[in-house]
Write a structure and sequence with these properties.
This protein is an alpha+beta fold. It is 49% helix and 12% strand. The protein has 16 helices and 13 strands. The chain has a 6-stranded mixed β-sheet with strand order 1-2-3-9-6-4. Strands 5-13-10 form a 3-stranded antiparallel β-sheet. A hairpin with a 2-residue loop joins β7 and β8. α10 packs across α12. Keywords: Heme, Iron, Metal-binding, Monooxygenase, Oxidoreductase.
């Protein structure tokens, strides 16, 4: 088989001009899972551009830990930067350390405890409209819940409400557009195709709404005790305040990434509990002991061990951020192969999580694989990335998902309306569609 880069096998099936566009659009998960059979590093084509997919955990760790050599870049990161600005998720290595220091105080343990109080309040309203025994659209419910909860963390002023509603409306179009434009040949992205028009419209509406909120906060000059207020008061090492462009990028990044990833994780967790009723009943026994039927709080977290393992296993099977890119800043070597400067590297948590060499029985939903006594391959679980660029909101997301899922199971018995597997739409997250669940109130269900 021909090789374009020395020592790196090329995946078959690339077409002129479009490369591997069709499998990446039609069934990217199946395509990714075929790549390890060709080697630890595999070349694919994104339009006319060659990219190298990294297929072993230790090699992915090398990429993640050496973020100066393997800088943020490549088609996916470029599109994220286009959609959200050069915030923490998309900024280059040269800007990352300062940005991380700026945002880190907002994710301290003391702040997380305060956010947990907001989470508990929002969880109280999550199922308020659920009818006993009536089917619910889980994705829609979790999307609204995650949006309202994360938005209240970022900005609490009433003037921010229109921005929250606008961003909620625009998010699906933004995330769908990021993935499509990353895998489409550049020429197609410049054409006025309906998908491109929808993406640009959604992005521009969200940007304008957040910009208006930042201006409103600056004008009232009031500390609302939220993340936006903190950023407006933050000073850099030179004693200068942050500009609107950087604040805008950070807020867009936290809002968009936080809402989508949390909603998707909770939707998949509910789906899996319906497919594995024995695990659901074990989780109900835990929540009955810890919560009864009340809403979970920060202080309950140490006792909600199975709930946390259920979320962890969900993130293994359906990692929200399933595919990401980096760029080689300089010529380097990886697995004894020469990687020229400016080469795009792709790593996929989904691929690594579903490789039986590193995660035995990868298709099985088994929260007990995360018990303390179980052994794991280093780097074979990376839903939040790793190294200095590991997701800053990982503890926030785990806290919110654990509290919400525990409360749902404590108060409702869940079952699938039908047994058809959900349709997965690969965009920037693995988004499920068609998760219809019947929820029966535990106060009316006999033990």
């Amino acid at each position: 088989m021909a090789k374009d880069l020395e020592g790196i096998t090329r995946a078959p099936g690339a077409l002129p001009v479009v490369g591997h566009l069709f499998p990446l659009i039609r069934d990217p998960l199946r395509f990714l899972k075929t790549l390890p059979s060709y080697g630890d590093l595999v070349q694919i084509r994104l339009g006319p551009q060659t990219a190298v997919v990294v297929c072993r955990p230790e090699l992915v760790q090398e990429v993640l830990l050496h973020d100066r050599t393997y800088d943020k870049g490549g088609p996916l990161i470029e599109r994220i930067g286009n959609a959200l600005g050069d915030g923490l998720a998309a900024c280059p290595h040269s800007a990352h350390r300062r940005q991380r220091r700026t945002l880190q105080p907002a994710f301290s343990r003391s702040c997380l405890r305060e956010y947990a109080a907001i989470m508990t309040q929002q969880i109280d309203t999550l199922a308020i409209d659920w009818g006993d025994g009536q089917p619910i659209d889980v994705a829609e419910q979790m999307y609204t819940f995650a949006s309202d909860t994360i938005a209240r963390t970022l900005f609490t002023a009433e003037s921010a409400a229109p921005a929250i509603d606008t961003v909620k409306e625009c998010l699906p179009g933004i995330f769908r557009g990021i993935y499509q434009q990353a895998v489409f040949p550049p020429l197609l992205n410049r054409l006025p195709l309906p998908s491109n028009v929808r993406y640009e419209r959604a992005r521009n509406r969200a940007w304008a709404a957040v910009s208006k909120t930042i201006s409103s906060y600056r004008q009232d000059d009031e500390n609302h005790g939220d993340v936006l207020s903190m950023l407006l008061k933050t000073q850099d090492d030179a004693g200068n305040g942050l500009g609107d462009t950087e604040i805008h990028a950070q807020i867009m990044t936290l809002l968009v990434a936080g809402i989508e990833s949390t909603a998707v994780a909770l939707t998949w967790a509910v789906h899996l509990l319906c497919q594995y009723p024995d695990v659901q009943e074990r989780l109900r026994a835990e929540t009955a002991k810890v919560l009864g039927t009340r809403t979970a709080t920060w202080d309950d977290l140490p006792q909600l061990d199975l709930a946390r393992r259920v979320i962890t296993e969900t993130l293994r099977i359906y990692p929200p951020g399933w595919i990401l890119t980096r760029t080689a800043a300089t010529e380097t070597r990886l697995a004894d192969a020469l990687i020229p400067a400016e080469t795009t590297l792709i790593y996929s948590p989904y691929l690594i999580h579903h490789d039986a060499r590193f995660n035995p029985r990868p298709s099985d939903f088994d929260p007990d694989r995360w018990l303390p006594e179980q052994k794991h391959v280093r780097g074979a679980f990376i839903p939040f990335g790793g190294g200095a660029r590991k997701c800053i909101g990982d503890n926030y997301a785990m806290t919110l998902a654990t509290l919400a899922l525990s409360t749902i199971v404590a108060q409702w018995r869940l079952s699938s309306v039908d047994h058809q597997p959900p349709h997965i739409e690969p965009r920037m997250t693995l988004t499920p569609h068609g998760v219809q669940v019947r929820a029966e109130c535990m106060q009316t269900v006999p033990d």
